[in-house]
Specification:
The complex is a heterodimer of chains A (about 375) and B (about 270). Chain A is α/β, with parallel strands linked by helices. The N and C termini of chain A lie far apart (about 90 Å). In chain A, a hairpin with a 2-residue loop joins strand 1 and strand 2. Chain B is an alpha/beta fold and about 270 residues long. Chain B has a domain of about 70 residues. In chain B, about 35% of the residues lie in helices and about 25% in strands. Chain B is built from 10 helices and 10 strands. In chain B, the strands form 2 sheets. Chain B has a 6-stranded mixed β-sheet, sandwiched between helices. A 4-stranded antiparallel β-sheet of chain B has the order 2-1-4-5, with helices on one face. In chain B, strand 7, helix 7 and strand 8 form a beta-alpha-beta unit. Classes of the chains: A alpha/beta (about 375), B alpha/beta (about 270). At the A-B interface, helix 1, helix 2 and helix 11 of A face helix 5 and helix 7 of B.
């Protein structure tokens, strides 16, 4: 490796008394990007059993580029049954060349993906049913853990529950408030345009009240919590999976369902109904502000109309719904975290999935509730 | 205070200094990790940073690869003051570095081959074919060619280390940093890795800084080193691990090198 400039990396075959000689010259630097390949038929003229030596007097600086070329040569020589006299190479080049295998690994066969719709549908069905079973089992185990905790024999740590409640509840107040205020205001705007035509301004209060209490507050709060808390649960459990923390819990015999999942679900179940009530209040406030500003409605009139329009059963309905939403978000996000892979990318995938499944699930569940409410006449 | 070391071999003294730490102090906030750290690393040496757990070995390495700015002191790489100047200057100097992290730190969303290829794609103008050839070569050197299309999560600990080594060599750096290369490896794999490190040093002419407390591996490959003390937060000995084992009188160092309990646990008072 001397420092003088020798120009382009070059090689040619030569022969002398001892046999074939590969003459190497020039600078062989990988980052210059000029590594000559050794042609597949480069050793055609060399007779079998002959040795191949090297002449390196005019070889300049070199790095892995030279080794790459020599490796090509080594593979060709092995295939042609020729002996490479590596002792004529610089010592360090020989050492590196010795580390390399004679044959490169054959490229792996591309994964076999046949078009088999029946198999695919079948596999998907079985997967889905298994998943439903697993989630149900997890839910049942968690419920059993909750019963045990209630009777004082549980494995749940109350400090975990408290810190989860703090994360899910008070720290979500601001964003739940903002979203519900805006939803209430938007409903009032939409209603105001139509109702003013009939001089029925005051019914804006009923519209906002019923919409917020029955649907919007529960659904919007659940969607916020799915994005905020559900995603966080999935990411946390997926990270624990990657760090073998879940394995450690399993080995100690600490049930994942009671230790990890129960406080997560319970904190959502405890906080969501109250966030829902808070959302109702703020949503109606949003409607109130718009009505006072835009319409000929007095504050007292709006208040009175709201009280008259909303029956207590509406609140009960929303309250029960938000408990179910909370359980759904908690259970699915924890399950998605648990089944995540072990790499950093898998954590992102798990968090995204948890949010998507949570939001879609909440809306689907809300549709089911709407049908039930219709049937029961609530 | 630092035990001086005679030259390990006649050739060593002639080698030029490649990196130089001068009176470096490292700290996290008010907590001092190491202070008055001064040593030179000669070109082509395998330099060991030794010491008990928690003495700041990895922190020194972190500072040498540019992840932690020292509280004070100068750090020269090839005569260039590393921490002076802007980020672009540091990136330029860091191009000479290759780092094998303690847990290999392979990018988990890329295959092994892509892990090695990424630095080349980012920092060179090589065409894809050449990059592929070099990736295969580097994985071949660490005997990982068979795993080129696998993801890091599918690899064992030793395979991850070797793949990390191939990635560290991606840009043909002339300075390689290894953080606990043999931690968690079985003795045979560990010995193979030692051979590999020596071969890479000899073959590529690289300088290697190695943080480790695996004694057999240190004795086998390191030809220079420094011993850090956790209590006094300074280096207390300097020299090749095998030389320190045979000649160093410091009770701490002696105990470390011979895997004994220190005779006078609080013997030093500085």
């Amino acid at each position: 490796m001397n420092a003088t400039d020798h120009g382009q990396p070059e090689w040619h075959l030569d022969s002398d008394a001892s046999g074939t000689v590969v003459v190497l010259s020039g600078e062989w630097i990988a980052q210059d990007g000029r590594i000559p390949p050794f042609p597949a038929d480069g050793l055609r003229q060399v007779e079998k059993g002959q040795g191949i030596a090297f002449r390196t007097e005019s070889l300049g600086r070199w790095d892995t580029a030279l080794i790459s070329f020599l490796w090509d040569l080594k593979q060709q020589a092995t295939r042609a049954g020729l002996e490479l006299r590596t002792d004529t190479l610089p010592d360090s080049a020989r050492k590196l060349l010795d580390l390399l295998p004679e044959q490169p690994a054959p490229p792996p066969a591309p994964p076999h993906r046949a078009f088999a719709p029946v198999t695919a549908v079948g596999a998907y069905t079985i997967d889905s049913l298994t998943e439903i079973g697993t989630v149900t089992e997890l839910g049942a185990e968690t419920a059993r853990g909750a019963l045990a905790a209630a009777t004082g024999r549980g494995r749940m740590r109350w400090t975990d529950l408290m810190s989860n409640v703090r994360d899910a509840g008070p720290s979500a107040l601001l964003i739940v408030g903002i979203v519900n205020f805006l939803i209430g205001a938007i409903l009032a705007f939409v209603g105001a345009v139509q109702l003013r035509k009939f001089a029925a301004d005051i019914y804006v209060a009923s519209l906002v009240g019923i919409a917020v209490v029955r649907e919007m507050s529960a659904v919007m709060t659940a969607i916020i919590m799915a994005g905020r808390t559900g995603g966080a649960y999935a990411a946390r459990i997926a990270t624990m999976q990657g760090n073998e923390e879940i394995d450690a819990l399993t080995v100690f015999g600490i049930p994942v369902s009671s230790y990890l999942i129960l406080p997560s679900i319970l904190s959502l179940i405890l906080t969501m109904p109250f966030l829902y009530l808070y959302g109702c209040l703020i949503g109606m406030l949003g409607g109130f502000c718009v009505a006072i500003g835009m319409l000929t409605v007095t504050g007292a009139g709006y208040f009175h109309q709201t009280i008259n329009a909303i029956a207590l059963s509406q609140f009960e309905f929303g309250f029960v719904k938000s408990i179910f939403f909370a359980a759904l978000i908690g259970l699915t996000s924890c399950r998605i975290g648990l089944r995540a892979g072990r790499s950093a990318a898998d954590v992102g995938v798990a968090a995204t999935r948890a949010v998507v499944v949570g939001i879609v699930g909440v809306i689907a569940l809300d549709a089911i509730f709407a049908v039930i409410a219709n049937t029961l006449g609530i | 205070m630092i035990d001086t070391v005679p030259d390990m071999s006649p050739g060593d003294a002639k080698r030029e200094t490649l990196m130089s730490l001068q009176d470096i102090t490292l700290a996290f906030g008010p907590k001092i990790i190491q202070q008055n750290v001064s040593f030179d690393v000669r070109r082509g040496s395998i330099f060991a940073v030794m010491g008990g757990s928690g003495c700041g070995k990895s922190t020194i390495l972190k500072s040498m690869i540019g992840l932690l700015r020292p509280r004070q002191g100068r750090y020269l790489v090839g005569g260039d003051n590393y921490w002076q100047g802007d980020d672009a200057h540091r990136v330029e100097v860091s191009r000479r570095f290759g780092v094998l992290f303690q847990s290999a730190a392979l990018w988990s969303s890329l295959t092994v081959g892509e892990n090695v290829a990424l630095p080349m794609q980012m920092f060179t103008k090589l065409d894809p074919g050449t990059i592929r050839r070099l990736v295969e070569l580097k994985l071949g050197l660490v005997d990982m060619l068979h795993a080129i299309d696998q993801y890091p999560s599918e690899l064992s600990g030793g395979m991850k280390k070797r793949a990390g080594l191939a990635r560290a060599m991606a840009l043909d750096p002339d300075i390689l940093f290894f953080d606990e290369p043999s931690a968690g490896l079985d003795p045979i794999t560990s010995a193979r890795l030692d051979d590999l490190i020596v071969n890479l040093r000899d073959g590529l002419g690289a300088t290697i800084i190695i943080v480790s407390h695996e004694l057999p591996s240190l004795f086998a490959i390191a030809d220079d080193g420094i011993f850090l003390d956790a209590r006094t937060k300074t280096p207390i000995a300097r020299g090749a691990p095998s030389w320190l084992r045979d000649h160093c009188d410091d009770p701490q160092v002696h105990a470390f090198m011979h895997r004994e309990r220190p005779e006078t646990p609080s013997g030093r008072t500085d």
